[in-house]
Model the fold of this input.
Amino acid sequence: MKSFIPKPFLIMLLALAVVPGCGEVVSGEARAESDVAVTEFELPGLDGTLHHLSDWRGQWVLVNYWATWCAPCRKEIPDFSELHDRREDITVLGLAFEDTDAQTFEEFLIEYPASYPILMVDVYNPPAALGAPLALPTSYLIDPEGMLVETWIGPLTGAQVETRIESGPDA
Done:
């Protein structure tokens, strides 16, 4: 009997089932001895305009990998929009991680509007600074100096982001 689950998706499901801590916070400290500098990346917005991570230096940046088919990702959009709109010191960047075109994302965003920038990721060549996500959604918190301070694999809320920011750089 042939499986109807695509092999890459099956591998991801198996990894989630056996990898301890999936769906939980993975701190920046767990990724390295101390803060990790996130090197620059450049990605196009839906309109084709190129954006750089450094465009938001001086602010906290929540980089959120998502896809249209991901139910938890869809649930995060209104909460992240509210956070992005309410806090001048926080920018949310949605990294659309799906092999499709800008028009598909634009049509999706009519039903699930995001007030923050949506950048398109080539799933075959994701930004080297972050790499490909292990699961969706995956979010990275970058401090105002451009250092990675937190990584979340799985669903996240704006309140969790704010709590992490308020706890300070060494939390």
The two ends are 50 Å apart (CA to CA). The chain has one domain: 24-166. The chain has a mean pLDDT of 84. The first strand starts at residue 25 and ends at 27.
